[in-house]
Design goal:
mainly alpha; 96% helix; single chain; 1 helix
């Protein structure tokens, strides 16, 4: 019983870590796109 609880806890933790890393990757992509856009706009002027 204790083993299955432990395995479930690890499984939940891994899923949380995975979803957080996916969110961070999306944020990083957004920041990159924004900074590239700002850079591109600043080179036009």
């Amino acid at each position: 019983m204790a083993v299955s609880i432990f395995e479930t806890a690890i499984f939940i933790r891994n899923n949380i870590v995975k979803s957080i890393s996916i969110k961070l990757q999306k944020l990083r992509i957004k920041k990159t796109v924004i900074s590239l856009t700002v850079f591109w706009l600043s080179t036009i002027e």
